[in-house]
Amino acid sequence: MKVFECNNCNHAVFFENYTCDNCGHLTGYRDKDRKMLTFNTKSKSLVSDKERIAYKYCKNKTYNVCNWIIEENSPEEYCNACQLNRTIPNLTDVNNFQNWKDLEIAKHRLIYQLQKIGLPLPSKMKSEEGLCFDFVEQEQDPSLMTGHANGVITILLREADSVKREQMRKQFLESYRTLVGHLRHEVGHYFWDRLVNTNPQVLDEFRAIFGDERENYGDALQAYYKNGAPKDWQKSYISKYATSHAWEDWAETWAHYLHIMDMVETAYFFRINVKPLGIKRSTKTKVSLDPYTIKNFDAIIKKCMPLSFAVNSINRAMGIPDVYPFVITPAVISKMKFIHSLLLSKR
Ligand SMILES: [Zn+2]
Ligand SMILES: [Zn+2]
Ligand SMILES: [Zn+2]
Hints:
Layout: E1 4-5, E2 12-13, E3 26-30, E4 35-39, E5 46-47, E6 54-57, E7 69-71, E8 85-87, H1 94-117, E9 132-136, E10 147-149, E11 152-156, H2 162-171, H3 179-196, H4 200-210, H5 217-227, H6 246-269, E12 273-274, E13 285-286, H7 297-317, H8 330-346
Parallel strand pairs: 8-9, 9-11
Antiparallel strand pairs: 1-2, 3-4, 5-6, 6-7, 10-11, 12-13
Helix pairs in contact: 1-3, 3-6, 4-8, 6-7, 6-8
């Protein structure tokens, strides 16, 4: 994620900010060029500092779950990220509200990233090939599950409850379970439909790398939950779950590809330079290029190890888990390279 700057006082502002912490001007994110705009609180209308263009906030600003802006004369009420919501929870319940808020933070980061890659994000409510989100309570319908089906991404609200999520993480023996992780995984299934399944040549390449997705999905998942992952799974897969079926391997690898791109992009915007003091044989890195502009995926992955070494060390200083507790093997890198070149070809 990029670091943003207040147009009034030039201090840094976060992606999620509603105001500049330094000067108090209102902040609003414009997705078409990924810029944070600022607005004087004293003026009646929302006219941006510097550019002097009139905007309105996305309707979800009313709930403080969205700071994206839309041009004032646009007929839309919701921003491009919130237009994709098909179902949101009943907000009279305080817990639901907080859970939804956390989901929106993760969803907006996901949309930022997909837009940066240059992927089209049509709404399912406007086009059959589109995408939409259902944020739902399982209590209302026990058959509901977190997942993807034909452009509909369903996320159970309980995933946003940090206590329940940690319980599930432990129960499924996972080293990592987050909202942004879920969203990145599920949207991977959507883009498999859009980018792989629609192109016979890409589909052939996919099968050569990830295996044959025509294997019965239900049977494969049942077998996975019964027998678990093969012993040597780490050699070829990013996670145990990725071994269950070619579709899940794709979605897991896709999610990790997005994790890596975001980590390296953030490091780029902070100009992070890793050069451990007095360690002669340690890996060094200087992130001097935006990873989304780099064609060679090896150059991106090379930045990851020293970066996570440094960031994990800071996390350990604070007594919190490592930021990226995974091993990326050459086989997994090959899978990510396929995703990287497929996405580059779409730009
Ligand atoms: Zn400011
Ligand atoms: Zn919005
Ligand atoms: Zn999946």
